[in-house]
Amino acid sequence: MRIARVLATAGLAFGLWAGIASAQDRPLKVVGPWEIAGIDPAQSGYIFSRMQVAETLVTADPTGILAPALAESWSAADDGLTWRFRIRGGAAFHDGTPVTAEAAAASLRRARAGVGPLSQAPIAEIVHDGSDVVIRLERPFAALPAFLVNFSTIVLAPASYDEAGRVTRIIGSGPYRVKALTPPLKLELEEAGGWWGGEPGIREVEYLAVGQGETRALMAESGEADLAFSMLPVSVARLKRDPDLDVRAATIPRTRLLKLNAASPFFDDVRERRALSLAVDRAGIAKAILRNPELAATQLFPPGLAGWHVPDLAPLRRDLEEARRLLAEAGWTPGSDGILQQDGRRFSPTLVTYANWPELPPIATALQAQLKEVGIDLKVSVGNSSEIVSRHQDGTLEIGLISRLYSVVPDPIGALTQDYGPKGGDWGAMGWSDPELLDIVGQLMATSDPDRQQPLRRRAAEILQDQLPGIPVTWSELAIVANKRITGVEIDPLEVNYRLASIRWAD
């Protein structure tokens, strides 16, 4: 009765999964929070990529290492200006037509013309030459293969488009093809047959978008879902006690951080930014709100970002006395009510955050109390995520609490390019730029040599840790729950591929 009431409240119906099948023929039932906005790859390509309906030229393993997908190999010319991606032999679309370099080049040209990451790459042209997709660049861009992992670059059959070039149906090349699609909630898949990677272990899959985390948890407990993604911290402990469920979690490349306006009188002195960082009790927030003290962010990049996370970097910590000393040094003195002031101005900035990520408002409330201990009267405003962008652009943002993803492409250089350019970025720096960091980003964009990349990445992390244009608060994790009636489940911290084709029924 409790489950039925919750589902009714959420406006869902278990009848979406009506029908009785034999043990081995029944569909694998997957639930997640992500609605299907449409069929355009720029909007919902992540659903078709993760569910193994459509594929990109390049993919990434759970550690972020690039791996072949529809491109069996790739190479760059000595000058770094021409890249060749050799299309895998024998790959076919779901309508029976072969995956060709011509079809792949057409899909990539469309992605480049859109709003995805590929539009930011310095591409001169995308053509095909025999079995190769050829991408010519305006300047060397070593991160190009990583940009081709993004879901917006999925390769679709020519029949997917109408005469105007609009996507009218998803005809991919993965192990599953679309059987039925009911936006924004439901996607039904069936085995496509002839996939180059082999036969999937389960012939049919059904995905249901369920926005409420507690509802997803109840569906897992009741057996209505075989696999549920993005579980809330408050549900994980309870789910772990269920003997029929397997709960797994992995740190993902997403950091909750304070985005500061370094041009404002509150944060234009690096001592003020360092003091703010020293006042934050990251471990307390991670334990009380996220239920995992290991998510306290001691630096910007979480441990899962190999090559970018620096294990021996001096960690961010809490030290109230040092915070007070730095603020006094920067010219802030306590007023009669204990709130700091400088030249008649109270240290009372407004923090803007949003409820798209439900943990952000309570984290903001915790920060408000913690900063009060050093004399900062933080005001909190909860609105929409778009307010961060609009207030960045008009210069009125003083401080924002955001959740920043660093795996839009597997290489965080994509995010750094957006966040720390000469004018900062909507989700990055504001009123702050560093010539050395700009030079490092440029060098990283131009080289794929690991021996050259590693010291550059380390130096970038050191600059961001020292100057604090953004203050890391907590890292993030992805929790999934699988019923023990299935085996072969893998967790992908990058959320590139759910590897559903590897799952088998245990009974």
Explain what this protein looks like in three dimensions.
Helix 7 (270-279) packs antiparallel against helix 9 and helix 13 runs antiparallel to helix 14 (450-467). This protein has helices spanning 2-9, 41-50, 101-112, 144-147, 213-222, 233-240, 270-279, 282-288, 320-329, 360-372, 385-393, 413-419, 435-446, 450-467, and strands at residues 28-32, 58-60, 66-68, 71-76, 82-87, 123-129, 132-137, 176-182, 186-191, 204-209, 227-229, 245-260, 333-334, 340-342, 345-346, 350-354, 379-383, 399-405, 470-483, 486-487, 504-505. It is of the alpha+beta class. A hairpin with a 3-residue loop joins strand 8 (176-182) and strand 9. The chain has a ten-stranded mixed beta sheet with strand order 8-9-10-1-11-19-12-18-16-17, sandwiched between helices. It has a four-stranded antiparallel beta sheet with strand order 4-5-7-6, with helices on one face. Strands 13-14-15 form a three-stranded antiparallel beta sheet, with no helix packed on it. Residues 1-21 have low confidence and may be disordered.
